[in-house]
Amino acid sequence: MSNPLSDNVFLTQLDAAANWARKNSLWPMPFATACCGIELMATASSRFDLARFGAEVMRFSPRQCDLMIVAGRVVMKMLPVLQRIWLQMPEPKWCISMGACACTGGVFDTYAVVQGVDRFIPVDLYVPGCPPRPEQLIAALIEMQKIVQTTGTVTGREFRDRTRATGPVPLELDEIRRSREATFVDQLEIFQPPKIGAN
Amino acid sequence: MLDLAAIAIRFQGSTSEFRSNRRLIVPAERLLETLKAMKSEFGFDMLVDITAVDYLEYEGATDRFGVVYCLLNTGSGERVIVKTHVNDPDPSLPSVYELWWGADWMEREVYDMFGIRFPGHPDLRRILMPDEFTAYPLRKDYPLKGRGERHNFPVITRAES
Ligand code: SF4
Fold first, then answer.
1. How far is B54 from chain A (nearest CA, A)?
2. pLDDT per residue over B41-67, tens digit each?
3. Which pLDDT score, from 0 to 100, does residue A159 have?
4. Number of CB pairs < 8 Å for A and B?
5. Which value, to the nearest 10 degrees, does the dihedral of the CA atoms of residues B7, B9, B10, B11 take?
């Protein structure tokens, strides 16, 4: 008689098992503040169908979510809300910054718009585009699943050494330049006539 | 059609016109009186908008701020724009909240963006910017990118959240 257990038991690491479970049921927290939010809704609905990747359960309570998708520009008044929602999400949690605005402020380089949420909350993945197509967001989600699978641990040890902000620190060179008068467009280098015969 | 020229003479103002926009420009002291007359005598029963313009460094401008009241007579469909000018320091105008209750938020917005105060307003607080904001962002001497208010937040790192 052969061993009845051999076909029914397989061994794995606890981490890998947990990651496998986690990555296939990410529950997004849709922090949709602007036009990117519409694309996020399109991604979640039947045509693009985020459900195929196990991430269709959008919950509007941060307590029930583990993946924050920041979709849209975040203004000064909204940032404390964003931070509070991020802090309210239970561990383990991840964050996708979706669209040019959430990543960098996009074209809204004004006094009221935060120049990238990654300056103030930790971001795992950036999705460029204005707005990113649903396919891009789905690609990001698959990438997120890879990240969870390869770096995740049951106890969340991998988060512990991320002690720095993911984004740029304010007051870099460009900030200093912005606080003074901006360069006129026609003086920018790309607007200069091409140098003929330079090569 | 309303005879704006006659009203302008009555309130020591002037008129101007651009396409079908008819404007009545009155001195700030006569503003409340003018608006009262516009409402009770000439039937402009709706205040469509209050907004302001900063004329700092504007060519040929003599005053710092222009404040614009867009009025509509819902009976006849006629529109008139009443404009007045105020200056630094402490630009202020009487509130028209008593005439049109809709002025409540519009005056708060003008206060928020330009720092023009409206004595007589029941609740003159900021409406768009956060309460702790100190500047008036639509003034021309305020830089477009702000003075670093947008960077003034605590940073949450992954390890501590
Ligand atoms: S990146 Fe483009 S689509 Fe997305 S919020 Fe900004 S402006 Fe809207």
1. 18
2. 988 999 999 999 999 888 888 899 999
3. 83
4. 79
5. 90
What is the predicted pLDDT for the residue at B86?
93
Secondary structure class of A164 (helix, strand, coil): coil
pLDDT confidence band for A78 (50 / 70 / 90): very high
Q: How far off is chain B from A155, nearest CA to CA, in Å?
A: 13
For chain A, the domains span 26-185
Interface probe, candidates A66, A73, A76, A125, chain B, greatest B C-beta count within 10 A: A76
Q: Between the CA of residue A1 and those of A4, A8, B9, B57, what are the distances in Å?
A: 8, 15, 114, 97
The answer, for B125 touching chain A at a CB cutoff of 8 Å, is no
Q: What number is the ipTM of this complex?
A: 0.82
Architecture of the structural domain at A26-185? 3-Layer(aba) Sandwich (3.40)
Q: What is the pLDDT of residues A88-125, one digit of tens each?
A: 999 889 999 999 999 988 888 888 999 889 888 999 99
Residues in A touching B157 (Cβ below 8 Å): 122, 162-165
Instruction: Tell me how many degrees the CA angle A94-A100-A103 measures, rounded to the nearest 5.
Output: 40
Cβ within 8 Å of residue A57, ≥6 positions away: A25, A27, A28
User: What is the position in ligand 1's atom list of the atom closest to the CA of A36?
Assistant: 4
Q: Which domains does chain B have, with CATH numbers?
A: 4-152 (3.30.460.80)
- pTM confidence score: 0.82
The whole-number pLDDT of residue A5 equals: 67
A121 touches chain B (CB under 8 A): yes
Length of chain A, in residues: 199
* The token pair that represents A196 in the structure block: 């003929």
Q: What is the mean pLDDT of chain A?
A: 83
Q: If you write DSSP's letter for every residue of A110-162 in order, what string do you get?
A: STTB-S-GGGTS--SEEE-SSSPPHHHHHHHHHHHHHHHHHH--TT-GGGTT-
The model's pLDDT over B105-148, given as tens digits with 9 standing for 90+, comes to 999 999 999 999 999 999 999 999 988 888 899 998 888 888 77
Q: Provide the β-strand partners of residue A125.
A: A96
